[in-house]
Amino acid sequence: MIPLENFLVLSALLFAFGLFGVLSRRSAILILMSVELMLAAVAINFIAFASYRDTEAFSGLVFALFVITVAAAEVGLALGIVLRLFRERRTANVDEASSLKW
Amino acid sequence: MTDIMGNGLNMQYSLLLPEILLGLTAFLVVFADLFSAELKIGYRLLPLLTVAGLVAALAASLILADQNSDFAMLVTVDAFTTFFRVLFCAVAIALIIGSHEYIESHVNHPGEFFALLLLSTAGASFMAGARDLLTAYLAVEVLSFSLYIAVSLGRNDPRSGEAALKYVLLGGVASAFLLYGLSFIYGVAGSTQYATIAEALGGDVSAVRGELVLGLVLIVAGLGFKASAVPFHMWTPDAYEGAPIPVTAYLSATSKAATFALLLRWFAGPLLPAINEWQWMIAVLATATMVLGNLVALQQRNIKRLLAYSSIAQVGFMLMALVGMSQITAGGLLVHLGGYLITNLTVFIAVIHFYNRTGKEQISDFKGLAQTNPYLALVMTAGLFSLAGMPLLVGFFTKFILFQSVVEADFLWLVVVAVVASTISLFYYLQVIKQMYLYQPDGDPARWRLTPTGYLTTGVLLAAVVVLGVWGTPLYEVADHAAAALFPA
Amino acid sequence: MFDRLPLPSQFDRTIIAGGTVLLLGATPVLVVLAALLVVDRITAPEFVFFLASAVLLASAAGVVLMKNIVHAALCLVVTLLGVAAIYLLLLTEFLALVQVLVYGGGVVILLLFGLMMTNAQDDPVVTDGSQKPFAFGVAALIAGVFIAMALDAQWGSPEAAIIPLPDFGARLFRDFSLPVVIVAVLLDIAFTGAFVNARRADAASAARGEARS
Q1: Which chain B residues are within 8 Å of C183, Cβ to Cβ?
Q2: CB under 8 Å to A43, separation ≥6 — which residues?
Q3: What is the largest CA-CA distance in chain C?
């Protein structure tokens, strides 16, 4: 049996990778990809806890299912905004979009 | 019907009537907008339809006011939920009546905008009513998604898309933090039901204390972002400035109030047993928010940015009430939220009408408003003084109740900080008032009038600001009743 | 604009190169894990877990470090498939399936489209911000704290529950009926958002103006 800690450490590392990407990338789409990594880490956490800590083993799974759904929707939404900004400014980098103080 | 544990599930859909009505109206509005050419209906029908739906939802909430029940263990319908349902519907009604001219000329896709407003109001009231982490999270996302889009709807404003991009990216990261925190709470408690979590955290959790604290830190960070508490406020000024003004008003009103409804539900319910673990986090956050929000507001030149920082500062005052969580502070927070929403809407609707006329939004553009439109200047002044907490206005009354409740909870030092911060805030509000009253108008000195709906909304809100400031007992009683629902005896 | 897009042959090369790198990187891990398995230090599920984790983390590093954005997107596919393998280890076949379908089939394609229409159009190679050391510091700190907490906590001796898959749907739509509806509304909102932003604002207002006049 794989201990629960293994899954938690794996998801912590994945979350940290995602955070690193969010902080270091400039392209909005690459930042989005990094956010996807963070959400994947969240889903691993939920499923691991559902299997090991929940007597019903159910609400965590539903939570993970909805996290996947919301993450996919967020990508669609954010890409729409990126495309619009690219059409207006010819850039998809967040630090070049700086008519507002960041 | 029963769930997996054999508990009976109350599938009484009439409990969700207000949200169902909001959803149906949103559908109708989009439909009417889509076929506006074929059905020969003009723009004017859209705000009318939206307001009708909101009034119906408000009435439905009031009909359900004496309910104390839950829908399928997912949503509670009690006095607390009703308080926020009524508040959110009222905010949306005032906002639409007050700004429909602005929306027509400065917002892309008005049909979709109204639909988003309706759906996000439904999401916000689910945030107040949820009794399961899953419902709460999805409600948070419904509200956030609507706001990401609403911010991006500014017409011919290059700042709009940029503000939306920053908001959606940072919002996604904040959601990830919030979710990671929720997963730890779920892991510690083994359930997503509020009641079960409260039970589990009330027991012995020393074996997993680290994970619990970590989960709480992440939740506070994620919700701190949604409420724009320092240091998670970076998105606020940009989103506020880039968004169309009604959306800015909505961000500072419903979005904040909904986040505080959620915070109250969580920190007075499932997370209350762990108060020793999270009390210090909120205290630090409240202090930083009050101090920084007010100091940075001093340097702003744009009225939207000024109001953004002022709303950040107000969040600091509200967080203060969470520190010493009890029925009294919860009641104080609800009173202050009510007063803050009324006051803030007054100021924003005045700014919207000023912008409709002049197309300007710098503070220096308010020069001589007392001569060109004395009524609007009076409304602005009353609103800003109320935000600063001057006596005889609602802002003073609610702040007094809030501060007093925090003192009673033995957090005198927080109140001292708050009073000092409040005094600083008077300075930057006075800057705007000074521009309106002490200077001659820059451009055309001719007098101008508001539209009828402008007079209606500002008049009603101004009356509320003054009347509730003198006689605030009704607001206090309603808030006290709602807070009592959070703490069942 | 099409002549600037990466040609299919370039994609082939990318995939072959990526596969080679993956193979070269995975082989030592595979050998070590196989040796451990043979001498009974780890069980078969653990063997799969460590292998999947290694691939997943390596490709996650690729997502955040690759200079070429198309390579980064392909790394994301590998990462998300690795996550699906982890779901399978946790005995949740349905979620693994959803993960593969939604991410592999939908999200990554969408992201690639987005990349092709923005950055990759001019130049598929991106430079990162100057704040890498800061980002690394924060991420390392977060990872350290999270791992310390995960190892510090005593979870007792948890037993993995078998998830009754056959009635997953029945329970989803009964116990969580309302969240399903809310998610439907959420998808609707996201769709609206993608639509209003991706559509040209001037075209939209022109259509509206025509309709009125």
Answers
A1: 138
A2: A64, A67, A68, C83, C87, C95, C99
A3: 82
Tell me how far apart the 2 most distant CA atoms of chain B are, in Å. 73
Please report which confidence band the pLDDT of residue C1 belongs to, taking 50, 70 and 90 as the band edges: very low
First to last CA, chain A: 48
- Alpha-carbon distance B263 to C8, whole Å? 51
Residues of B in contact with A53 (CB under 8 A): 186-188, 190
Q: Which of C119, C125, C145 to mutate to test the interface with A (most CBs of A within 10 A)?
A: C119
- Rg of chain A taking only CA atoms, in angstroms: 17
ipTM of the complex: 0.94
Q: Say which amino acid occupies B328.
A: I
Is the bond into B246 cis (omega within 30 degrees of 0)? no
Lowest mean pLDDT among B60-74, B225-239, B373-387, C29-43: C29-43
Residue C206 contacts by C-beta under 8 Å, 6 or more apart in sequence? none
Please classify residue C16 by burial: count the beta carbons closer than 10 Å to its beta carbon, then call 0-12 exposed, 13-18 middle and 19+ buried: exposed
Q: What is the largest CA-CA distance in chain A?
A: 54
pLDDT tens figures, C128-139: 666 788 889 999
* Cα-based angle C3, C6, C11 (whole degrees, multiple of 5): 145
So what's the pLDDT on residue A101?
43
Residue recorded with tokens 């996201």: C190
DSSP of A60-97:
HHHHHHHHHHHHHHHHHHHHHHHHHHHHHHS--BTTT-
Q: What is the pLDDT of residue C212?
A: 44
Every domain of chain A and the residues it spans: 26-89
Q: Which of C146, C182, C192 sits opposite B142 (nearest CB)?
A: C182
Query: Where in chain C are the domains?
Result: 2-154, 164-213
Terminal C-alpha separation, chain B: 29
**Pairing status of strand B75-77 against strand B69-71:** antiparallel
C192 closest CB neighbour out of B116, B122, B208: B116
CATH 1.20.120.1200, applies to C2-154: yes
Phi first, then psi, for residue B2 (nearest 5°) are -125, 155
Could you state, in order of their start, the residue ranges of all structural domains in chain B? 13-486
Instruction: Tell me which amino acid residue C111 is.
Output: L
pLDDT, tens digit (0-9, with 9 covering 90-100), for A9-64:
999 999 999 999 998 888 888 899 999 999 999 999 999 998 888 777 788 999 99
B179/A55 Cβ within 8 A: no
Residues in chain B within 8 Å Cβ distance of C150: 211
Of B179, B181, B193, B187, give the one whose Cα is nearest residue B74: B193
Exposure string of C128-153, with b = 16+ CB inside 10 Å and e = fewer, is beeeeeebeebbeebbeebbebbeeb
pLDDT at B88: 96
Q: Is the CB of C151 inside 8 Å of chain B's CB atoms?
A: no
Contact between chains at A54 and B190 (C-beta distance less than 8 A): yes
- Measure CB to CB from residue C149 to each of B119, B152, B211 and give the nearest one: B211
Task: Name B269's Cβ contacts closer than 8 Å, sequence gap at least 6.
Answer: B194, B198, B486
A5, A51, A62 ranked by CB distance to C161: nearest: A51
Chains that touch A (3 or more CB pairs under 8 A): B, C
Amino acid (one-letter) located at B315: V
Q: Which chains touch B (3 or more CB pairs under 8 A)?
A: A, C
